[in-house]
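Teaching note: in complex prediction, the entire set of molecules is handled at once rather than each chain in isolation. The prompt given to students was simply: 'Predict the structure of this complex.' The entities are:
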Amino acid sequence: MRVPSRFLAIPAVLSLLVAACGGGPGAQPPTATTAATAAPTAAATAADPDKVMAALYDAAKAEGTVAFYSSTNNDDARKILPEFEKKFPGIKVVHTRKSGEALVQQLVTEKKAGQDLFDVVETNLFEVLFVVEQGYTQKYRVASFADYPDQAKDKDGGWIAGRFNNDLPGINTEKMPAGVTVKTWKDLCNPALSGKIAVEQTDVVIYSALKKIFNETEAQAIIKCIAANKPSLRSGHTEMANLLAAGEFAVTLSSNGHRLGQLKYEEKKPIDWARTDPIITDVQALALSNKPKNPNAAKLFMEWWTSLGGQQAIAATGRVPASGKVPPKYPDLNNFAKIFYVNQDLRKDFEKDAEFWRATLGIK
Amino acid sequence: MAAPDLATRRAGSLRLPALRVDTLVLIAVSLFIAYLTLIPLGMLVLGSVSEGGVLGGDLTFRHFARVLTDANSVELLMTSFGYSLGAAGVAFVLGTAMAWVVERSDVPYRNVWYGLALVPLIIPGIIHTIAWLFLLSPEIGWINAPLKALTGQTLSIYTLGGMIWVQGLHEAPLAFVLMSAAFRAMDPSLEEAAATARAGTWKTLRRVTLPLLLPTAASVILVLFVRALESFEVPAIIGLPARLFVYTSRVYTALHQYPPNYGLSASYAMVLLGISVMGLVAHRILTRRSERFATITGKAYRPRRVELGRFRFVAVGVLVTYAVLAIALPFLVLLYSSFVRVYTVPTLETLGSLTLRNYAYVLEDELTRRAILNSIVLGVSTATAVVGLTAVIGWITVRSRTPGRGILDFLSFVPIAIPGIVLGISLIWVYFTIPIRIYGTMWILLVAYITRFLPYGIRSTTAGLVQIHKELEEAASASGASWWSAFRRVTLPLLRPALVAAWIYVFIVSLRELSSSILLYSTESVVLSIRIFDMRDSGQYTAIAALSVMLITFLVILVAVLQRLGGRTVRES
Amino acid sequence: MTLSVQGLHKSFTTDRGAVRAVRDVSFTVEAGRFYTLLGPSGCGKTTTLRCIAGLERPEAGTIEIDGNVVSGPGRFVQTHERDIGMVFQSYAIWPHMTAFENVAFPLRVGSERLPRERLSRMVEEALALVGLEGLEDRPAPQLSGGQQQRLALARALVRKPKLLLLDEPLSNLDAKLRERMRVELRDLQRRLGIATIYVTHDQGEALFLSHRIAVMQDGVIVQEGAPRDLYGGPASGFVADFVGDATFVTGPAVASGISAFGGTVRCRLAPDVGTGDPALLVLRPESIAVRTEPAGKPNEFAGTLRIAAFLGDHLDCFVEIGDVLVRAKVHPGTQLVRDQKVWIEFPAEHVVAIRDDGWRPRVLTRTFDDES
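The expected output is the structure of the full assembly:
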């Protein structure tokens, strides 16, 4: 079985080279350096992802499937998952897709009923952490562990992020009042933007993050002055981004970076985003079931998802891969000076933050 | 006089009466309904008094205390009431007016109108709502741009009126379907009697036709009200920016916490259940003396249509106005959207870059094809099962004097107040606990759908049965027909317009069901609403638009065919 | 004996509590007889009929049809297993079937499968019986009211049942048609000789059609008998009032009649009326002569003519004597003027006084002064 796996390794290496050369000019230098420093570590610990995957693949063949519980939408999943199935013939990814809270509801209900149906779970960090705390997962350190920034993984291997959701203020360049620019969070307080700003009603995490980035007083001041601009409340980030592109408002407090990128580059809409200092990134974490039905396939899948091949497949959809080695598809979604990663600490005050958020913005 | 063939029958009747068929059917159906609805109801109640985010916690009344002390409750409930009543009113008035014109007047092209009237129902709620946002947004509305140029004024969708209008238009087809079944089944001589008493057409309509239709009307309004109450899209897309918050959002907000507060969500859902039950009680009081309202009398009648004469043009005008407002405009937005890459205000530039990409995307997608097939299979099965079950339950509640029939009626109505996500969770739980392994298959979706749509079926069939004079069934018994034979040969055929209406409606709402499907589907049992939800999540409204255009075309044809079948209930020569 | 009903009881629960609709009702119907249950609405006549049909389940009592107990202690035979045919007040014609299908239905749902030709023949016979031949293929909704009524009858008869049950079948027809139908119905019943139970509130129909009549009041049979006996010898004021028209005069019984109209009215006395008992005189309008001059006969009383309405076949007169308005039907040729003084006279043998049980007709106390 070694021969085919070695053959399979070749395209992976080739694609790495292609990616390295083809990446946007802005993205190239940091990626290259990260790759250079990470490679020896992986080799030294003998955890070459390709070798690990080859071994797991042998064992996983008998299992045949992997149950992947993920909030990656089907349209992206059907671009990403076939890459895995192509690389590992005979192993089918059964993707159970729902939004974060529904995914957790289903998973927890299954577990409480004594059913071990999922192998790998992948959704918002908050939700994954909830599952981890219930004891429904186990630690697993992937071979590509070193490629990931510290904030995108649990140092003990409890979870690891495969992709990021950048939460950026979205801008409709045609609807922006003349002379107004949005570069920082505070710029959203500009009275010229009164009635032209939209806020997703559940974005409490932005406030929680701002508290950590600045301090509580300043974070509250920002939310309060945004509230003074009479924001249009919205439900659903994608909806809000689409309406931004349609011209319903000039700016959003927070939109998904990859959706803004799609609208700007694929659909040629007058869309841009603020490069705040820092930007806030929502971590989409991956964790392994404590009792996976298909343990080898599950580990194989986690390895692949975090490997160069998997990350490139994710990047191809426009989403932002978490690996430091793979640049995102839209270069200006990566050239941020500073990134604030949504983390465990933000959950502590969730109820209190939510209360402030709702009271300030008038969400009943 | 004695015929020999009756001798054997008399001999047969000498045995002691065993369990009667109707008793057996009654027991079986009651058990089945209890099984379908009591379990999720129990889960809801249990959840609302359980400690912790999910099931199995200690007993607590913390969640209820929080619900009761919620400072915004009153305001939220008032908004919910205003919105739901308004939407039910708009939908009822529009739907009933349409139904009367189509069923009882000699307006031309009746079948065409029938098909067209259903279109808003088939458009997914999200698309319907966004289409109206694109029509009436003060910022980018298609209607508002010329309106502003002409009058300097704009209409805003972001008002309570806007919410009512959009939801009302979306649900008007439901009123239309159910009310036209009622009109079709009504004895025109009752109206003619009024006409001969020198009452004008309007007076007849107001004084005779509408009061006679009270049981159906009460049912329809109740269903419309509860549907608006539990609706999601309009409050989220229009209500939220207008800062009009409804009570339902509490149920969802509680689930959007970390960890999700299942108990709190269930407690809020209990309040909704309470409101729905109040509606049901009001409905029962209104229709208690239902026998007075039998409108299919034993005197067979010919369906007669009111000759509109010169009002014909007025009626056509009204229909056309409705068609333009409720059908053509949103459909046009939809059609246009299905040919562009991203939803946007049309300009010469966008019109120049129309594309078939969305259609190709939808048609080539294997998952979408599977979803369409699954949804049709589920829709047909659900509609058939619901109609069959509710015909029997309706018969029991309307005709029999069985003790506990009120409870049966109540049980089949209760699911209307159980949030889909609660139903989904309870079904997962149930089908892991009992040794019926249907989790992850289409069967569990079928169970969920039947449970969820029982209320719509029961209101429709009960209303239909009330209209059938009971002597028609008794005549069958007196003619020697057993209960089952009488039910099959007399009751069901007479009930057919109501059954076809309920079938069409349940079929279409099955295609739209999302909130319980999302927990219960698997890759194999993916359904249409899930695909639409996915596309919405990935921002592909235009693909949804293309899918909707195809769906509408398909369903309008289907409904037209069904109408032909259902319309022959009363023979026309 | 085709039908026997013994000690029938049935009550209903309504919004206002329990109503005892039928109380201890017993009667029998001989083969071939036409038996009518007559009474005002709510008297229990329809409930009794529905118990016989098996559409209601009685609480007590025994019902036998043709010697078989169909309802009794521990036994209840379903409607569809009873040997009956029934016509409903609303006709209950099924609008989704043709005339033929309506009539064929009882034969088709039977336990025995009839050959197609035999079935057709029986249906055609039944339709011919009621004069609907040739309308077999007509959709039921396209039949007139009278035709639907006949169709309902044909459907009830097609199985050749032992017992025919008719629930106010003529009440939905207009006056002319109703009269024609009752002639046809009487003729048909006499020809077929089928035992028939007929429920009506119309005494004219009851008298015209029946061999025997049972008058019901508040769930009880108050009197049963042949039409002539009921009319001539009512057991109570209620019966006298319900079967035929009458003027009622109260007064204590004396040896040869009752004391009323400021003197003695000579009449027959019911057997249970003794001298001195309060009695109720039943004056049938057709027994009374009205004259402008006294004829010097016994039972002659002076009064004032208040109404004399010409009705073609008679003059409908109301004569005021004291505080009583006496109704009389006289020959249309009689010359009478309103408010003139008249004398009424009636033969003692045509008038009966019955026990006064306190019952009063509604018109007795009414005066016509304000209308004259």
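Point out the following to students. Residues 175-192 of chain C form the longest helix (18 residues). Chains C and A do not touch (no CB pair under 8 Å).
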